[in-house]
Design brief:
36% of the residues lie in helices and 24% in strands. By secondary structure, it is α/β, with parallel strands linked by helices. Helix 4 (68-80) links the parallel strand 3 (61-64) and strand 4.
Length: 255
C-alpha cells in the first residue's frame, strides 16, 4: 500500500519513521516547505514529491500531518480522487460547512475520512455508548505551561472553558483531541472542554468524563510530550501509526 504523507514537521517526521518500518506499506512524502520533505526523505529513504498532485498519483492512502489550513486545502483534492484520508488536524472539522462538504464528497466518491484517537483513550467505548445516547461529555486537557508556549506561570491557570467548537478554533495546535472526541460522541456544541496550564505537571494530561444511558465513564491519559514538540503528546504520532497499521492489516480489533 502506497502512503502519501503530507506534512513533514515534528509529527509528520515521527509518523514517517514508523510507516517505513510497517510491513505492507511504502511511503512517499510531501510538504509545501520542500526542505522539510527532503530532510524526512533522507532520514527514511522515502521518495519525495514537490506537488500534491504528483503524490496523489498512485496513492492508496493519504495522511495529513500539516495544519488545519492544509487539511482544508487538500481534503477536497484527496477525497475527490476517491482516496481515503487520515486527518490529524481534526480541529478543522469544527468548521461545520467544511465537515458537511467533505463528508458528502467522501460519500459520493465511496471513500473515507479516518480520524486517529490522538492523545486520548476511550473513543471505542464512547462510540459504543453513543449508540444508546449520551447526556454529557467533558474533556479536561492540562499541560505544562510550555506546552502552550507560556512561561513564568507559577499556579494552575484555566485558559479556556466552554464548547469544543470554540476550543479547537482558539487552540488549533493543542486540542485536536477535542475534535476527535466531539466526532465520536455528541458533537462540537455539546462537548465541553476545559484547558489548563499547570506548572506542577510533567505530562500532558487528558481526562474524559461521559454520562448516558450506558452509565458513566472516566478515562484519564497522562502522556509524555513528544520529544520533537512539547505542544504535542508522544501518543499522537503513535495513534496515527496504529490507525495506518489497522488500515493495512486484514485483521481489525475494536469498534
Amino acid at each position: 500500500m502506497r502512503v502519501l504523507l503530507v506534512g513533514c514537521g515534528a509529527l509528520g517526521g515521527a509518523i514517517a519513521h514508523g510507516v517505513t518500518k510497517m510491513h505492507g506499506a511504502s511511503l512517499v512524502v510531501h510538504d509545501v516547505d520542500h526542505a522539510k520533505a527532503v530532510k524526512v526523505a533522507r532520514e527514511t529513504l522515502a521518495p519525495v514529491v514537490k506537488t500534491l498532485e504528483e503524490g496523489l498519483a498512485g496513492a492508496d492512502l493519504v495522511v495529513e500531518a500539516a495544519s488545519q489550513a492544509a487539511l482544508k486545502e487538500i481534503a477536497p483534492k484527496v477525497l475527490g480522487k476517491g482516496i481515503p484520508l487520515v486527518a490529524l488536524s481534526v480541529g478543522a472539522f469544527g468548521d461545520a460547512p467544511f465537515l458537511d462538504a467533505v463528508t458528502r464528497l467522501a460519500q459520493e466518491k465511496k471513500t473515507r475520512i479516518l480520524v486517529p484517537s490522538g492523545a486520548i483513550g476511550g473513543l471505542d467505548a464512547l462510540r459504543a455508548a453513543a449508540e444508546a445516547g449520551l447526556d454529557e461529555v467533558t474533556l479536561v486537557t492540562a499541560k505544562p505551561p510550555e506546552g502552550f508556549g507560556l512561561h513564568g506561570v507559577h499556579e494552575p491557570r484555566v485558559l479556556y472553558e466552554g464548547p469544543a467548537r470554540e476550543a479547537v478554533a482558539k487552540f488549533p495546535k493543542n486540542v485536536n483531541v477535542a475534535a476527535a472526541l466531539s466526532l465520536a460522541g455528541i458533537g462540537f456544541e455539546r462537548t465541553q472542554v476545559r484547558i489548563v496550564a499547570d506548572p506542577a505537571l510533567k505530562a500532558n494530561t487528558h481526562t474524559i468524563v461521559a454520562k448516558g444511558a450506558f452509565g458513566e465513564m472516566t478515562c484519564r491519559v497522562e502522556n509524555r510530550p513528544s520529544p520533537e514538540n512539547p505542544a504535542s503528546s508522544h501518543l499522537a504520532s503513535l495513534a496515527a501509526l496504529a490507525l495506518i497499521r489497522r488500515f493495512v492489516s486484514p485483521v481489525q480489533v475494536g469498534t
